[in-house]
Each structure stands twice: as structure tokens, then as C-alpha cells.
Predict the 3D structure of the following.
Amino acid sequence: MSKSLRIRLTVVFSAVIGLVAFPISLIFRYDFFIFPSLLLGFFLPFFLLLEWKIERVLKGLCVILYGILGGILIPQIVEQYIPESFSQNFEIYKNLVVFACSGAGGSIIASHAEQLYQADEKQEVKETVVDKTQKIEQLITSVEELRKTTIRIHITYGVLILIGAVAFAI
């Protein structure tokens, strides 16, 4: 199944659930179907928003605005029709929508900002190339001189130990 067909089917399915099944469950008082229809009606478009191929900042803002619409504005309109037995679950739904969308949208925007920051750092590194060949050659020469000095010290200690051993042996 192609991605565009999958998206179309998801939009149709969520529209049927959100615009048909949810109101019918409210009208006929099918309390057992209210919460699942709310969740499916919310999450399917939410996942479509997350898969939408647009700039990250715009996507983050759309997800946050979807959370405001789905968690604050629409519940205010629908709240008068919600049965009393469902009011606590409805509060959970509103909080879930607002927190999920604000968290996801904020994360998308933060990820975009982090990538911009890392891109700026990478450009700075590429622009500043410093040739340290001469200092490396000086370091190699210095290490060779230290190695020769260390060998001389070891030879001197060896000779002193031999002289001391011969002196104690006599």
C-alpha cells in the first residue's frame, strides 16, 4: 500500500470516527464508545501531522495548535453533551491531548534548533583549518632528544652500578 493511499485511508477513518462515531455515541449515550472514539479521532490525525513532510518549526507549531484545538477549544464545545459518568475520563482526555501535542511539538522545534546549532558548529570547523606540521616536527625532534638523554642516563647508571659492584667485590 502506498503512503498516499495509507494517509487518505487514515484521514477518512479518523473523520468517520471523529465526526460520525463520536457524535452518535453522545446522542445515543453509548458511554462505552465515547472514550475510544475520542482517542482514535485524536490520535490518527496526530500521527498524520507527525508524518507530514514540512519544515520542522512549522510542523511543531501545527502540532501544538492541534493540541490547543483538540484539547481546549473542541472540548469546551462538546463538554455540555458529555455524560456525568464520563466527566473524569474527559478531563484525562483533555490533559492527554494538550500534553501529547505540546510535548511533541516542543520536541520537534527543539530538535530543529539543535540541528541548526550543530550545522553552525560544523561550518566553523570546516572553515578553520590550521597547519600544525612544523610544531609536530618540533615535537618529534624534542622527543628524540629526550630519548637520547634517557639512554645516556641509563648508561651512566649502569656504569655506576658496575663500578659499585666491583668496588664491593674487592
